[in-house]
Amino acid sequence: MNDYSILIGGKAGEGINKAGSVIARILSHLGYFQYMYYDYPSLIRGGHNFAIVRASTRRIGTHRNAIDFLLALDQNTVDTHRWRCDAETVVLFNANKVEAEGMGIPIEDIVDEEGGSSVMVNTGLIGAFGRAAGIPWDTMEAVLTLEIPKKIETNLRIARRGYDTVEEQNPIPPQEKTTHPILTGNEAIGLGLLEAGLEAYVAYPMTPSSSLLHFLAGSAGDFGIKVIHPENEIAVMLMAQGCAYAGARTAVGTSGGGFCLMSEGLSMAGMTEVPVVIVMGQRGGPSTGIPTYTAQGDLHFILNAGQGEFPRFVISPGNAEQAYEWSARALNLSWKYQAPSFILVDKTLAEGTYSFDREIPEPVGREGEPRWEGGSPYHRYADTESGVSPLATVPLGGEVIKVNSYHHDEHGTTIEDPVLVAWLNEKHMRKEEAMLDQIETLSPVVTAGKRSAETALLCWGSNIGVCTEVAEEAGLRVIQPLVLSPFPVQAFNAALEDVTTLVAVEDNLTGQLTRLVEGLGCCVDDAILRYDGRPFSLEELREHVEEVIA
Known about the structure:
single chain; Pyruvate-ferredoxin Oxidoreductase, domain 3; Rossmann fold; eight-stranded mixed β-sheet; 18 helices
């Protein structure tokens, strides 16, 4: 066996996400690729939280329903996830609170005896897991020391006692493989933005983009960037445009409800041609919906947001490597074409944890933009063949840099003359042709699985992970458009070559990617849709695909 799944569960406030992350890093230390799915309700305390950590000798991007280890801090975890277990599943539980078949550890007694705090019960359970999985103590100690720096001596004592309480049950052997960094999707996005020269990040916290704000705030001193938390999302978008007007490469982060408040500011960016990158994390709606669960229901909202007509980039990565590379591209493209760029992700990607292979993303770096080379007076909206005007930013001695949210002439002066209004509208949309030409050179459509297969799964966002694995098992092709606006029709049609049956896989009710590609003349034969806030597991999608292609 070279594929293992570990579920750890408990209540909000018991550090389940952190515990899952530590387990993922322990298994990464053994040479396995990782993926972690974290499930939690919108509660600060209580409720049921759980993380499924999957380790494999191959790259993975989805979880399995079946588990090999169940780690339960409370009775609810055992009762809720019993269906995932079989006779071989190793069950480890907090004997102070749980009654179950398996190995009980009096974790709360251990924590009290060692003078620890209540949250350290997860450390004792992680220690017990290490012994049950046959992981050497020195490996456990090394990872715990790195991952839990606070009160590490107490944590190590508690973990060691948990380790010594149980016996080896299902050993996970080390692999002769390179250890890869572990990143959440949001962390990969943040690093990609930094790679392309991010200088300011402005955001109001909103799941699932909040952890990106926390990550960049924690990294601000190391990278010399400004991270600002204004009073609301309206202020976020306007402040970001102020930063960009002054020359700072700027991004914002939000989710659907927060972006609703930004949409008027987005239109202003379209009119003023001030660059801005919007990281938009999708969750279940409408309205507040299910704020801590996943969805892919905002595609058409993003494609059409804002009054009037103006071009935009919409990029939708599906794993950590894509998030890193294409976030850097989004920032560069926004500044090159002076147009908004969206990084459209779902909660599964944003908060999921992945092994990150440094060899996969193409190097991007910070790319330049068309700059004004002098020749007074400066015309902020100078007419050009591409529609992109040479850029200058304040302060610029002896020149006025005027941006205007009204229709305006080349100087930025308000106008209502019909000829000039038509000229400006055409100038804005002339960019889209140049934008599309560049997108087509950047491999904007990914193909995976059996690339010669006549049946293909069409997906976007985080579904690339589960679709690829199912397709490889079933001998199918996978097609994933990474760029959704301007849509790369040429690359998409090339990916469809010889496909006779196309099945869409989406996390929404109406098939939003299906509607997009059908509007461009593509025929989608069937759809597998999920809209309950949960991502497809490997087993679930496999079953659906078998039904559709039978």
